[in-house]
Amino acid sequence: MAASNKPRIVKDYDKLPLDVQGQIKIAYPAGFAGNLITYIDAKGKVVSALPYETDDHYYLVRMTLEEANNIVENDDDFGDDGILRDDFALQEFEGHDDVDDVDDIPDDVPEDDDDDDI
């Protein structure tokens, strides 16, 4: 990845706005598990995450290999083969008014697991 001045956001998948989740599904139609990276966070802990970049942000979506597999397995947008369904439509997520900005999403995580800007 080239150097960028985009804000970098580290979030759990389930705390992302639905439209961003939908965009991630389109970016990774064969599932997430094979695209995870690992890095060491500010606390020295090894973390696995799914990288995702938009025009405005660079995301590291925190998830373990098990979580990546469970997300796809339990999401009706993916078929039994773990591939995004052909009839998946991002427009059902567009205009979602629950959250205007990913930074406005409240995090209900313990203090030692806060979201990080990297």
Summary, kept brief:
The protein is of the alpha+beta class and 118 residues long. Helices cover 16% and strands 19% of the residues.
Descriptive notes:
- The protein is 16% helix and 19% strand.
- The protein starts with 7 loop residues before the first strand and ends in a 45-residue tail after the last helix.
- The chain is globular.
- It has 2 helices and 4 strands.
- The protein has 118 residues and is α+β, with helices and mostly antiparallel strands.
- It has one domain.
- The chain has helices spanning 18-27, 65-73; strands spanning 8-12, 37-40, 46-53, 58-62.
- Strand 3 and strand 4 (58-62) form a beta hairpin.
By secondary-structure content and strand pairing, the structural class works out as alpha+beta
**Can you tell me the residue ranges where pLDDT is under 50 for at least 5 consecutive residues?**
95-114
Estimated helix fraction: 10-25%
Rg calc: 14 Å
**Spatial sequence of strands, sheet with the most strands:** 1-4-3-2
Order of helices and strands: EHEEEH
How many helices in DSSP terms? Answer: 2
Q: Largest sheet at a glance?
A: 4 strands, mixed
Mean pLDDT: 82
Task: Please count the beta strands (DSSP E, at least 2 residues each).
Answer: 4
